[in-house]
Amino acid sequence: MSVQTFPTFDEPATGLGEYSRLRFVVQQILSTVAGATLVRVVAVTNSGGLSPVGFIDAQPMVNQTDAAGHVMPHGVLHKLPYFRLQGGANAVILDPQPGDIGIAVFASRDLSKVKATKSQNAPGSSRMFSMSDGLYIGGVLNGTPSQYVQFSAGGITLTSPAVITLNAPECTINANTTVNGTFSQGMGAAGGAATMLGPVTVTGDVTAGGKSLTTHVHSGVQPGSGNSGGPV
């Protein structure tokens, strides 16, 4: 009668002595411990809006293998809290997006009760170092951005393919300022008067109340008197 055998993770020296057998047992226990791995974001609860920090679903990118060399993907990990740079009410809102690659780390105990209550709590179960208790750090092996803040030896560059909006009750710029583009003042709901210390130098024309500074004419001109009416 033939005996069917199955591949295992043991090595030729596993059965040679107590140390080798104990080493094999320890290795098998360690293989069940989740530490950190690369994941790809599958879904995100937030999409860049003003809201509390959310959660992602993520697919581990390093597959499982058995002793025979068969490869099997992990299942999707659901509701991993993701990292946001935040202190109190001050934050940089930069939510992950599906397709992002990042780092997931896994807690030593069950985080489910803390995730549900956002307060100190007991472990949700006896599980330890499980992929069910992941936290997403994010931001590795990703492509070239099109919207970014760039810090380099030449200075800081802020680039956006769309509108940049600055909301504040007051803004002070302590720098020489160059505007390469059209400039509008006082057009919004909080618009008001503009005050400049001067002098102001204008290369082109200036229009005020529909009247050109360089081409307007005056009414009521009185020859020899030096007096005239207002601009026409």
Q: Please, could you describe this protein's structure?
A:
- This protein has 232 residues and is mainly beta.
- It has a domain at 34-136: Gp5 N-terminal domain (OB fold (Dihydrolipoamide Acetyltransferase, E2P)).
- It has two helices and 13 strands; from the N terminus they run αββββββββαβββββ.
- The strands form five sheets. Strands 5-2-1-8-9 form a five-stranded antiparallel beta sheet, with no helix packed on it. The protein has a two-stranded antiparallel ribbon with strand order 3-4.
Quick structural gist:
The chain is mainly β.
Topology:
Layout: H1 18-30, E1 36-44, E2 55-60, E3 64-65, E4 71-72, E5 77-81, E6 86-87, E7 90-91, E8 101-106, H2 112-117, E9 134-136, E10 148-152, E11 155-159, E12 207-208, E13 211-212
Antiparallel strand pairs: 1-2, 1-8, 2-5, 3-4, 6-7, 8-9, 10-11, 12-13
Keywords for this structure?
mainly beta; rod-shaped; two-stranded antiparallel ribbon; OB fold (Dihydrolipoamide Acetyltransferase, E2P); 232 residues; 5-stranded antiparallel β-sheet
